[in-house]
Amino acid sequence: MAEPASKEKSQGWLVFRWALKCVPHLIPEQLRAEKLTEIIPVYAISIEPGVREEAVQVLFRTVRDLPQSRFAVMRGMANFILRIRDDFPLLIHTSLGRLVQLLHSWRACIAEESAEYESQNNRGWPGKGSNAGTVPSTTFRPGDSDRSNFDPSGMDAVGLIFLCSVDVQIRRTALELLRCVRALQNDITQFSTKEASVQPPTFVIDVFEETGVRIKL
Q: Per residue in 72-126, pLDDT tens?
């Protein structure tokens, strides 16, 4: 009885792994943001290596291919990390490091999209007559949608929470997270056409640097 049950479970994981390969593209629109990004991080720590690997790839594919869902991915990952119990420091450290990787991936996407935008701008946009080779007035730069979606305060809060950890590896990764949040916000601002209508945010890492606070790592 044990062998058939084990085989059935193995086949179930295989089917689920192939289902993950379809995410986020072959799924209903309403699942693309909140529900999906809250569920996938759980499988990114699955005991089944194939499922774990594919779930991680889902997160990166979503960041790469769905700009409107990028912050939802970060928020889902952050919420998952906050639910991990303190007596699992390795899991916290691994997941926090993955959040940092996802933020780096977001930055890379903005840089790539901006380079493509500038290339098209330099070559001229397709058009007819007097409009040929000109950039339409309604054209948005790559950072515009990111600017409206990204809320750095939540990510800053996660970094600050884990900066208080007793685990030195977690503290180091939390500090890297704080720096990455600021860098991402700077990238979004740089590559956006919108004028800043409010005072630029003050980041936790800014406060540490301005006050000369030394973080014991």
A: 999 999 999 999 999 999 999 999 999 999 999 999 999 999 888 888 777 765 5
Burial classification of residue 77, based on how many CB atoms lie within 10 Å of its CB (0-12 exposed, 13-18 middle, 19 or more buried): buried
Cis peptide before 152 (omega within 30 of 0): no
Asked if 47 and 81 count as a contact pair (C-beta separation under 8 A), the reply is: no
pLDDT digits (tens, 9 = 90+) for 31-67: 555 678 888 999 999 999 999 999 999 999 999 998 9
For the record, the structure tokens of 10 come out as: 């193995």
Q: Which amino acid is at 40?
A: I
- What does the block give as tokens for 64? 């790469």
Tokens in use for 207?
A: 């406060």
At residue 25, the pLDDT reads 80
The Cα–Cα gap between 48 and 51 comes to 5
Question: How is 97-156 classified by DSSP, letter by letter?
Answer: HHHHHHHHHHHHHHHHHHHHHHHHHHH----SGGGTT---TTPPPTHHHHHHH--HHHHH
Q: Please, what's the b/e burial string for 34-51 (b: 16 or more CB within 10 A of its CB; e: otherwise)?
A: eebbeebbebbbbebeeb
CA distance 140 to 7: 52
